[in-house]
Structures are given as C-alpha cells and as structure tokens.
Please model this.
Amino acid sequence: MAHDATHPKAFHHPHEGCGLPERDRVLMSFDDFCFAYEERPTLRHVSLDVYAGDSVVLMGDNGSGKSTLLKAMSGLVFAQRGSYRFDGEEVSEASMRDASFAKRLHQRVGFIFQDSDAQLFCASVEDEIAFGPRQMGLGEEEVRRRVDDVCRMIGIDELRGRAPWALSGGEKKKVAIGCILSMNPDVYCFDEPLNGLDARTRAWLLGFLHQLKDAGKTLVIATHDQSLADEVADYFVYMGDFHEYGDRPHVHINQ
Ligand SMILES: Nc1ncnc2c1ncn2[C@@H]1O[C@H](COP(=O)(O)OP(=O)(O)OP(=O)(O)O)[C@@H](O)[C@H]1O
Ligand SMILES: [Mg+2]
Model:
C-alpha cells in the first residue's frame, strides 16, 4: 500500500494495489485535514480519498476521532488547516455560509447520528421524514410521494402519526434512517448504526445497507462491531495505528 506515515500529504488510496476494483471518481477528498476541539487536536493531517460507490468502515479506539471525521464529511466541522473537497468543491466554514451550497451538501451527504434523539425534532414521524425534502424545496406532492415510499421501504407505516420522542430506540433509528433516505443522498454516514438494536432490526439494517450498496451509494460506517464491518466493508480505515484484522484492504489515518 502506498502509504508513508511520515509524510502528512501521502494520500491513502485503498484501491491501489489492494485488489479492489478501480473506481473512476473521488467523491470525498481530505488533504492534510486538521481539526481541533478548542485546543485539543482531534483530526491530525488526515489525507484520504473515498471513491463514489465505496463502502468504508471506520474503526479505531474510543475518542480516536471517528464521529468527528463523519461530521467533517457532512460539513458539520471544518478544516482548520488543509482541506476537504466533496465532489471537487471545497467544503469550508466560508463555503458553508452560502445557504444553497450548504443545503446541497446536506442533501448529498446524509448523516445518521449515533444518538437518534439528536436527529429527531418534529412533532410527527411523517413531518420528520418530510423535513429534508421540504428543505430541498420539493413540491408537496413529491414530498408526500417520498414520505409514502420511505415509510413503506423501511416498514414504519404504522408509526407515521406517532411523536418521534415517544418511540423506542430501534423505532427511532428507523425513523432517523428514513429522514435521510427521503433526501436520496449519494453518501450515507452511519455512526454506530447497530447500537441497541434487537436481532430482527439488526438483520433488517444489514439488508438495508446491502440494498444501498447495490444501488451504488457510498457508505461510511463508524463501528466497533466487527461482524458488521466484515459484512459491509470494501475496506477499512483505521484511526490510528492499532488493528488486529489483517485480511482486508485497510489504511491508517490520524496517526
Ligand atoms: N463537541 C465536542 N467538544 C469537545 N471535544 C469533543 C467534542 N466531541 C468530541 N470531542 C473529543 O474529540 C475526540 C474524538 O471524539 P470522537 O467522538 O470523534 O471519537 P470516536 O472515535 O467517535 O469515539 P467513540 O468510539 O467513543 O464513539 C475525543 O477526545 C472527544 O472527547
Ligand atoms: Mg463516535
């Protein structure tokens, strides 16, 4: 693997020399990306290319920066040094001040939070799922069609009129996924998606991830769950240098 940890600008291309099919388009490109919460460096000189259609599993210790990297991909935190480009366009504090640019990024990169409560705020499940499409400026008829499709696809028709805050954890997770699905993004960022799910919901979610993959969507999944990782990863991105699984393509960043 072409990776020189001493050189912060060494790009990580898991497609090169790792037996993965060559893909033609880099969708998310981090170049020497640095970010600190207050004074504490959290993402250090991250250089990483994710190609359209990749299924990437992010692994690393607690506090190693996985969730922060997903936030950066979704335009929720920004480079303090270096850069992040989405589909060729720089995502920065300045570019995100342009409301139409920010809206487009949020539509194209969906982020399913680890804690569904942080994502759900509407009075009903229907409104919640309609929120993104309405923000996109779609007409009410199209919004209704998307809500119907999504509720059917993820099997939450019976929850449509319920208040999101009064749902169970697994039901909330499905609704949170529905909120992103209704915007039909190119990229799905999942933060610990299986946490707290029962065996049936877990099986459903694994099937759903495969459907997204088959549809050519780009998946970035932060997880500590090795069986989920083995199930969906084209390759692993490890935050830091420790890992014990060597049988798939992998790169190390944030060392
Ligand atoms: N909002 C915040 N304000 C200040 N520090 C933060 C904030 N969010 C995260 N951090 C810190 O940044 C570091 C990286 O956190 P992050 O949540 O990205 O890690 P993680 O790899 O997702 O961990 P985990 O496996 O526990 O989910 C941690 O040291 C954490 O304490
Ligand atoms: Mg996390």
Summary: The mean pLDDT is 90. Residues 71 and 77 are 6 Å apart (CA to CA). Strands lie at 26-37, 40-51, 55-59, 81-86, 89-90, 109-112, 187-191, 218-222, 235-239, 250-253. The chain is about 30% helix and 25% strand.
